[in-house]
Amino acid sequence: MGVVEAREAFKLALSMVIAYWIALSMDWAMPKYAALAVALISLSPARASFMKGFLRVVGTTTALATALACISLFSQDRVLTLAFLSLHLFICAYAMQGSRFPYAWFVHGFLPGLIWSSTYGNVDSTFHFATFRWLETVVGVVIFTAVSTTIWPRRAPEDAPGAPAARRPAGLDPHRLRLALVPPLSFAAAFAFWVLADPPTGPGVPNTAGIYSLLAVMAGGVPVVKLLIPLMIALWAGVAPIYMFVMPMLDSGVGLLAVIFVVTFLFGLLPDQKALLRTFLLALFVTVTGISNDQTYSFMALLNTAMMFFLAFGAIGIVQMLMFPVRPEGAFRHEVRAFFRECARIVRRPSRGAGGLTMILARAEKALGKIGDDVAGDGASEHRLIDAMRALAERLDSLTDDVPEALRSSAASAFESWSRLRPSSDLGVAHSLTPVMEDARGAMRAVDWARLSEPRF
């Protein structure tokens, strides 16, 4: 642990304590939303956090208007509510894949479902809930921004994590369409289960399915089932002992704020490379403990929370399994296509950076390692393709806007052809890209794509 990490953890813990202190001292209805805003924008660089906080306020404001319209028009009809929220999720999931501000679309996408599920059966409180949700979100954003920019401020690099990606708006993309269908279908599946089985978690199941399926889309289609085990470990080994054994022993506000500070500080010590895990643990702590002036403790609430995640993640997992390949050779083809689609976007707008290519490469290499010898043989051609893709990613990471537009457009067209597993014969691209693209094209031609596409049971 270094001095910088300790300072950032201190600022995060201080922001969390101030947010809870203001919300509890003013007896606001939902203090957790001010703390949740702090948790979800807790990226170390100040500029990135400020931008993420601004996008969260914008997304919250527009989403509240959408939620109020939905509930006022369709609150008495489950079918119309399902149709409206599913369509809303689809539009947001598709738009966030081509937007320069995907986080704003994410917040705008999940919040109407959250407000609907939180006020279900008590529609009269909808406006009250929406108003305090907006107020406490803004307060959390302002507090964290003020603390992070006044105490040991840090400058963010131009490609800081959390800054909005410079994504190129695209036309009707079949891959984007299919990925955008995951949130509405997951929400509909969880909604149907809630209506038919009536679990004790209530409408929280479809709401959770909508939130995490949107998060999966924003992460490029990550299988959410893989997050279930880490989530359960964090819940039962980290948050549950604090909630059940530490918090009931507290008898003063000072003690409660001290516990909040210590827990947040410890989670905040996680390095920037694990920012997603840090934010996830903080969000889980805030939502599960539900700290308020009328604090209650319930072991059944923990069980219901665990059940809600199991059911919601199950719905998302089934939809992802049906819509995307589960065989490793299918996953390998999917990642290769995704890699060259991303390459096309990068050469059109080099300022977006090539960071996303590294994650895609890791997934492709992992899928390749699972393909049996009966399908890929010794895998020499596939490994050659991986090496060529890695060299291409390194070259694109240093690409600048100085390359003429015509040459970048030519390279983008070639990459789009490759994303359909059709290596074009005429490159006609910038001289600096030609060698690595030649290697990649040769490697693609050496792979037996027909064999990797054969049905196998």
User: What percent of the residues sit in helical stretches (DSSP H or I)?
Assistant: over 70%
H/I helix tally: 20
Question: How many domain units?
Answer: 2
Q: Rg, please?
A: 24 Å
Distance between the termini: 49 Å
Secondary-structure class: mainly alpha
Main sheet, how many strands, which sense, barrel? none
Query: Roughly what fraction of the amino acids lie in strands?
Result: under 5%
Order of H and E elements: HHHHHHHHHHHHHHHHHHHH
What is the β-strand count? 0
Overall mean pLDDT: 80
* Global geometry: globular
Q: Segments where pLDDT lies below 50 for 5+ residues?
A: 156-171
Structural write-up:
The chain is built from 20 helices and no strands. By secondary structure, the chain is mainly α. It folds into two domains: 3-323, no CATH class; 328-452, no CATH class. The longest helix has 29 residues, at 46-74. It is globular. Mean pLDDT is 80; it is low at 156-171.
Compact description:
The protein is mostly helical and 457 residues long. It contains 20 helices and no strands. It is 71% helix and 0% strand.
